[in-house]
């Protein structure tokens, strides 16, 4: 028996909710079950229903109206409220076992790069609810296929990695939007990047900042964990099953499965005379 959770993280609009839906439909197609836990108090309706929804506890709209707060202050308020009411989350999660819970998080990356809101929720899920968690951090492929933007994206991914202290998978989303041959070639370079090479080859960097750029490249290189898996949610593709196999691996999902009794029809198939 095991409890497995995936956190879908990344800046606004990178495709987190679409990714969550794609995992659900892929899992359904291979006979596994998963549920979405919506942690975005400003979420719009999606194709798949949320099994657990923070908006049942508190919604951004209500907070903004009643507390006279803006969207970002309102979001922080919602999460502080959640942290003070974690027993609500415990009750909602209840007895979900042997099924993935996918936590769809808001796009305000301050929540996991600056303020300790998500790290506190993560600790609670691990320590009180016994979850095996895997963080997925999405960045848009069309954004990152550019040396300077690559470094800004890599640093934000590293920041989430360090703050959350979870097994972490970086994902380049929307690769279907990379269409021309030159960009496709560039994309390959960014999936398994060499930060030192990237910082050397960019003449567009202002030479005034060359030392700083080199130091940042060295930092990313020393960290040695910035790699990306490609994701295309626009059409049925193998990218989602590859990503899921990585997640299964880091959460040790298959090891924790109890051996199942074979179904009657499987037994019939096995009843073949091989002589
Ligand atoms: N072409 C393409 N578009 C995508 C893909 N994934 C998501 N999108 C589009 O990107 C937009 C944003 O997607 P969402 O899934 O809502 O992104 P999000 O990260 O959940 O956004 P926030 O929750 O607001 O931060 C939508 O219009 C999606 O249809 C993809 O793989 N390819
Ligand atoms: Mg979303």
TrEMBL record:
**Entry keywords, A to Z:** GTP-binding, Hydrolase, Nucleotide-binding
**Partners and quaternary state?**
Binds to RNA polymerase II (RNAPII).
Q: Which InterPro entries match?
A: Gpn, Gpn3, P-loop_NTPase
Bias (Acidic residues) ranges: 264-275
What molecular function terms (GO) are annotated for this protein? GTP binding; GTPase activity
Q: Does the keyword Transmembrane helix apply?
A: no
Q: Which GO terms describe its biological process?
A: mitotic sister chromatid cohesion; protein import into nucleus
- What role is this protein assigned? Small GTPase required for proper nuclear import of RNA polymerase II and III (RNAPII and RNAPIII). May act at an RNAP assembly step prior to nuclear import.
Report which superkingdom the organism of origin falls in: Eukaryota
Q: Which family does it belong to?
A: Belongs to the GPN-loop GTPase family.
Q: Give the residue ranges for region: Disordered.
A: 253-275
Protein name as annotated: GPN-loop GTPase 3
Please name the Pfam families in this protein's record: ATP_bind_1
């Amino acid at each position: 028996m095991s409890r497995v959770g995936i956190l879908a993280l990344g800046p606004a609009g990178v495709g987190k909710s679409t990714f969550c839906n794609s995992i659900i439909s892929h899992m359904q197609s291979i006979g596994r079950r998963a549920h979405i836990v919506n942690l975005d108090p400003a979420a719009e309706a999606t194709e798949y229903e949320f099994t657990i929804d923070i908006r049942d506890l508190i919604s951004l709209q209500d907070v903004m109206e009643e507390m006279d707060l803006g969207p970002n202050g309102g979001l922080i308020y919602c999460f502080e409220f959640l942290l003070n009411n974690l027993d609500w989350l415990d009750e909602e999660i209840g007895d979900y076992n042997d099924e993935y819970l996918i936590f769809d998080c808001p796009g305000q990356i301050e929540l996991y790069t600056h303020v300790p809101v998500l790290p506190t929720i993560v600790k609670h899920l691990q320590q009180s609810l016994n979850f095996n968690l895997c963080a997925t951090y999405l960045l848009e492929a069309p954004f990152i296929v550019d040396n300077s933007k690559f470094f800004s994206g890599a640093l934000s991914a590293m920041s989430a990695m360090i703050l959350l202290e979870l097994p972490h998978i970086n994902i380049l989303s929307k690769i279907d939007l990379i269409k021309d041959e030159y960009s496709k070639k560039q994309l390959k370079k960014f999936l398994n990047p060499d930060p030192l090479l990237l910082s050397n080859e960019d003449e567009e960097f202002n030479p005034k900042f060359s030392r700083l750029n080199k130091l940042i490249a060295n930092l990313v290189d020393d960290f040695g964990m910035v790699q990306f898996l490609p994701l295309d949610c626009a059409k049925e593709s193998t990218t989602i099953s590859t990503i899921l196999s990585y997640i299964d691996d880091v959460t040790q999902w298959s090891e924790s499965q109890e051996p199942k009794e074979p179904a009657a029809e499987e037994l019939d198939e096995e009843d073949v005379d091989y002589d």
